[in-house]
Amino acid sequence: MALNQTTFILPVVTLLAGLLVFAAQDDKALPSVPVHDQHAPAPAPVPVPATQAAPDHLGEASQSNPVPAESLQLHVPTQISLPPPPPDPNEFRMSSEVELVLLDVAVRDANGGFVTGLKRENFHVFDNKVEQPIRVFAAQDAPVTVGLVVDNSGSVRPKKPEIVTAALTFVTQSNPKDEVFLVNFNDQVRFGLPEGVAFTDDRQLLRRGLLSNPAQGRTALYDALSTALHHLEKGRLDKKTLILISDGGDNSSDLNRGQIMKTAEQSLATIYTVGIFNAEDRDKNPGFLRSLARLTGGEYFQPENINHLVGVCEKIAKDIRNRYSVGFAPPASVGSRPHQVRVQVSDGSGHKLDARTRTHYTPTSSRTRSASR
Question: 308 and 160 in one domain?
C-alpha cells in the first residue's frame, strides 16, 4: 500500500514542477505590465548610472520579441539651414557703400625694380594738392578685367606674327583669373571673341581672334579705344586695364583725340601703350601713345625692334600683377572739372621711390568705388 502511494505522488510532483518552470519562462518572455491605482502616486524612476551595463534579460526580451519595422518612425527635418562659408580674408572685394576714387599704383625703386610689401601708412594721396585719407588699400595680385586693343591696319602687316605671339605671351604671364577681351581695328572696329563671349581666359579663343582679321585698310584708333573703354565697364572685376598695340596714328575715326582723352580720364582705367612703327612710318604718333599712358597711370613702351615685343608684353603682365590699389573719398563739393591727383610713397628708409598712377580724374555723380577693407 505504501509503494502504491509513492508511485502516485511522483508523477504529480513532476507535473507541478513542469508547470512552475513553464510559468517562469512565460513571465520572462512576456513581462507583465503593472497596473497602478490611478489615485496612487506614480513611483519615482530609479536612476541608472551611466557606466552600469543593461541587464541581460532586456537583451533577451528584444531578441525574443523584436519590435515590428513598421512601428519605427525616424523624424528627419525637411529643411536644413547651413551657415554660409566664411569669407576669404585674402580676397579683394568691393562694395558700393561710399563714393571713392580707386587708384591703381605701381611703385618702383631707383633702379626700376618693383617695390612690394608696402603698407597703407607708406602712401599719401593728394587731390588738387590737398591730402586725403586713404579709405581703401590692397597690396596683392588681384585679377583684372583687361582688354587687348590691337592694330590691324595695313601699316602693321609685316609685324602681325610677332604681335600675335606677344599678345598671347601677355595672357600666359597674367593672373589666371583675369577676364580678357579683344578688339581688332583697322578702318573698322571688331570684337575678336565669338559672338556671345564677352570675356575669356581661353588662349585658343584669343589666338583665333587675333588671327581672324587680315592686316589691311586704314586706322580707326580713337573709335577702337572708345569701344574698348565702354566694354571694359561691363567687366565684373574692379581693376580695369587696356593694352594698346599700335603705331599711334589715326586716319579713319569718327572721334577725335580730345574726345578719347576725356573718355579715358573719366574711366579710371589703366592703359599701357606699345608703339610698333619704323622711323619712316608716316602715320606714327608716339606722342599720343605716351600721353595716353601717362594720363591713365600706365606706361608707354617703344621696343627697338619687333623681336622685343614679347619681352615688353611680359613686363606689362608683371607690372599689372605688382600694383597697389589705393582709394580715397573725394571732397564733398568736388564739382565736375578734372582734378589733379598725386601719390607719394615712402618706406621709411630714405630711399627714393617712384609711384606711378593716373595724373587726373574727372568726378562724376554715378561713379562709386569702394571696398570692404
Answer: yes
Selected residue with higher pLDDT from 48 and 196? 196
The DSSP symbol for 286 reads: H
Task: Report helix, strand or coil for 162.
Answer: helix
Bridge partners for 200 per DSSP? 180
User: What pLDDT score was predicted for residue 161?
Assistant: 92
Domain limits for position 229? 145-321
Q: Alpha carbon 323 to chain centroid distance?
A: 17
Q: What is the CATH number of the domain that holds 155?
A: 3.40.50.410
96-119 per-position pLDDT tens digit: 445 789 999 999 999 999 999 999
* Claim to verify: residue 196 and residue 337 sit in the same structural domain: no
Identify whether the C-beta of residue 120 lies closer than 8 Å to the C-beta of residue 214.
Answer: no
- Predicted pLDDT at 365: 55
Q: Which amino acid is at 66?
A: P
Stated pTM of the model: 0.72
Buried b or exposed e, range 64-98, using 16+ CB within 10 angstroms? eeeeeeeeeeeeeeeeeeeeeeeeeeeebebeeee
pLDDT digits (tens, 9 = 90+) for 314-347: 999 999 999 999 999 988 766 678 899 999 999 8
- 210 and 123 fall within a common domain: no
Specify if 367 maps to a domain. Answer: yes
Query: Within this chain, do residues 355 and 293 fall inside the same structural domain, yes or no?
Result: no
Torsion, Cα 229 233 236 237, to 10 degrees, reads 60
**Tens-digit pLDDT profile for residues 274-323:** 999 888 888 899 999 999 999 999 999 999 889 999 999 999 999 999 99
Q: Rounded to whole angstroms, how far apart are CA atoms 125 and 134? A: 7
**CA dist., res. 29 & res. 121, Å (int):** 83
Are both 314 and 232 inside the same structural domain?
yes
CB atoms within 10 A of CB 12: 9
Residue predicted with more confidence, 255 or 25: 255
Split into its structural domains, the chain has a count of: 2
**What span, in angstroms and rounded, lies between the C-alpha atoms of 158 and 169?**
19
| Listed residue (323, 205, 191, 194) closest to 269, CA to CA | 323
